[in-house]
Amino acid sequence: MISFLRANLRDTLRIVGILALAAVTATAWLMLMQSHRTPPTSDYVSPSTTATAPTPSTTPSASAEETEEPLTVAFLGDSYTTGTGASSDEQKWTTIVAQTAGWSESNFGSDDTGYMAAPFVEGEQLLSYGDRIDAVIEKSPEVIIISGGRNDVGQDPALVRQEALELFTQLTEQLPETSVLVLSPWWDASEPPFEFSQIVESIRSAAEEANVSYIDTGLPLTDPALIAADGVHPNDDGYAAIAEAVTAALSRL
132 with 110: CB under 8 angstroms? Predict the structure, then answer.
């Protein structure tokens, strides 16, 4: 599944270029093999006992698959993206997904933030997603995966939609060759409030208008056993559940 996921995302980014490259490569290889093929003769020639020098091989030393660079993926999100509640960085869902798929991960998560949410915490003004995209654009990844939205509960859903639409539009305009994927927001094991469903719809609607992929991963954290002691963030098992849900959803693209 993971190998399919990686290939499918890369195809989404550059399907025409890949097909064209494959055609050119196949033609060049065929011509190379034809040029080294010895034409048949009708006369019998007895085997020579004279040693001949070895012919240098023209076979490529490595295949395209072996030399292919890893897919560069940027993750933009909140404390679920930073891995708050996990026992180590390696246990957060972004790293599980990236390492399993063989991607190169860049993490742009920030606790307590969202599409609009930008609280003042311990003397520091945090930045919303839109105010952090310069660093993402500078990285110029092949794929951007945006998650979060629960921290926007309590904000005006119409304003959240506006901020999300502006974010998606800026990314697609600044990085036209990059695939932008928006994941549905997640809640913990408690019953999500009605306002959460409004935020979910705002983000989905904005993604649709911006013509970026909105991916519904469901609510993978409904089991209380997947939540850390703070009652909000996933524990290691919870992040593994998110990684599984994300991987399954991406494989269906």
Answer: yes
Please give the structure tokens belonging to residue 154.
């309590």
Q: What are phi and psi of 131, to 5 degrees?
A: -85, 0
Looking at residue 46, its pLDDT comes to: 45
Greater confidence, 56 or 72? 72
SS3 (DSSP) at 114: coil
In this prediction, residue 253 carries a pLDDT of 82
Beta strand spans in the chain (E): 72-77, 104-109, 120-121, 124-125, 143-146, 179-183, 213-215
What is the distance of C-alpha 104 from the center of its chain?
9
Give residue for tokens 């310069």: 134
Which residue in 95, 129, 98, 96 sits closest to 111, CA to CA?
Answer: 129
User: What number of other Cβ atoms are within 10 A of residue 1's Cβ?
Assistant: 11
Question: pTM to 2 decimals?
Answer: 0.76
Q: Give the C-alpha separation, 250 to 240, whole Å.
A: 15
Cα-to-chain-centroid distance, residue 78 = 16
